[in-house]
Design brief:
The protein is built from twelve helices and 16 strands. By secondary structure, it is α/β, with parallel strands linked by helices. 47% of the residues are buried. Strands 3-2-1-7-8 form a five-stranded mixed sheet, sandwiched between helices. A five-stranded mixed sheet has the order 11-10-9-15-16, sandwiched between helices. The chain has a three-stranded antiparallel sheet with strand order 5-4-6. The structure holds adenosine-5'-diphosphate (ADP) and magnesium ion (MG). Adenosine-5'-diphosphate (ADP) binds next to helix 5 and helix 6.
Length: 350
């Protein structure tokens, strides 16, 4: 299919802190790239966006920075966010005469100013109409939960910058919590642990790879001890060195941020009206976002909440698929799109 076929097609965007995904009506997910932009500080020009920019993290000369404009679940840099969004949208929507409608999912803690900045960026990028939808709602739709019914559904979305926990019923968010502990904090905990216990400095990317390979939130079954060799820089000598690390060690390293995530789920369940809590007991909690792939996180939540826990089919795509359903069934989901909630302040801001 050629670029021409995108003309006038509505677009759904998952503007995540770690990854941005674009869904085109009738086509599905057509773009999935890290939310990273590399900038030349001399000229202010954008050198690379997405996967190419992510490769540059920790490897740039002094005049180049590879930044994540949505670090920590908020838009840390308006200007760069706008450029990134524009770049991605133009990549899938070139040479068009009719402007698309756009559904953009944003981290739920964003402020009114950031909200406007996203609308502005999407408009600049060519949208005729912009609808903002909060991540947990999009995630619930993407996971196929019955969001419009009079039944409670719980979504736990563990992304890069934030973990969002929400209970949805009748097309709206009933209770929700958002904390700035998610994938990035897990990576950071690994960096700290390896520095303290092995006197080795790791880059963020190495820590992330280690987390994905053998990270864990629940003891592995007997005889399934996994290990990995990692290379970093010795704290004392400054020279490269290799150490071996086990999955058990990583579980210890990740304990604090994992506890924070578990506690947030428990608190949200506590705040949940009894009828909805009963519904969740029946239907279970749905885990989405890249963090859902952390080994044993589902089991840990099962043990600590007593609720059934399911990992969404494709946790890294759930939110984009939800945005996609919104553009496919624009009219049918209008009420959900209109049901804006401002209750989703990060816990620390309440
Ligand atoms: P966001 O919505 O904030 O962009 P994502 O849902 O795309 O975030 O998830 C990105 C996070 O998921 C990153 O922190 C990444 O390290 C983490 N992640 C991806 N795959 C795995 C995995 N297999 N195990 C653990 N964490 C993972
Ligand atoms: Mg997300």
């Amino acid at each position: 299919m050629t670029t021409m076929s995108f003309i006038g097609r509505d677009i759904g965007v998952d503007l995540g802190t770690a990854n941005t995904l674009v869904y085109v009506r009738g086509r599905g997910i057509v773009l999935d790239e890290p939310s990273v932009v590399a900038i030349n500080l001399h000229t202010g020009g954008v050198l690379a966006v997405g996967a190419e920019a992510k490769k540059m993290i920790g490897r740039t000369p002094a005049h180049v920075v590879a930044t994540r404009p949505l670090k920590d679940g908020v838009i840390a840099d308006f200007d760069v966010t706008e450029r990134m969004l524009r770049y991605f949208i133009q990549k899938v929507h070139r040479r068009s005469w009719s402007k698309p409608r756009m559904v953009v999912c944003v981290p739920s803690g964003i402020t009114a100013v950031e909200h406007r900045a996203v609308v502005e960026a999407a408009t600049q990028a060519g949208a005729r109409q912009v609808h903002i939808i909060e991540e947990p709602m999009a995630a619930a739709i993407g996971a196929g939960l019955p969001v419009a019914d009079a039944t409670g559904s719980m979504i736990v979305d563990v992304g890069g910058g934030t973990t969002e926990v929400a209970v949805i019923s009748l097309g709206g968010i009933v209770v929700a919590r958002s904390i700035r502990t998610a994938g990035d904090e897990l990576d950071n905990a690994i960096v700290q642990y390896v520095k303290k216990n092995h006197s080795l400095l790791l880059g963020d990317r190495t820590a992330e790879e280690l987390k994905m390979a053998i990270g864990s939130a629940w003891p592995a079954p007997e005889g399934d001890l996994q290990r990995a060799e990692i290379r970093g820089r010795d704290v004392i000598t400054g020279l490269p060195r290799t150490v071996e690390i086990t999955t058990d060690e990583l579980r210890t390293a990740l304990e604090e941020p994992v506890n924070a995530i578990v506690d947030t789920v428990r608190t949200t369940l506590d705040e949940c009206p009894p009828e909805l809590a009963g519904d969740i007991m029946d239907r279970g909690v749905v885990l989405t976002g890249g963090g859902a792939l952390l080994r044993g996180l589902d089991e840990r939540l099962r043990q600590e909440t007593g609720m059934p826990v399911h990992i969404a089919d494709d946790p890294l795509h759930t939110v984009a698929l939800g945005a996609g359903r919104c553009v496919e069934e624009f009219e049918a989901l209008r009420t959900v799109l209109a049901a804006r909630t401002r209750s989703l302040l990060p816990a620390h801001a309440r």
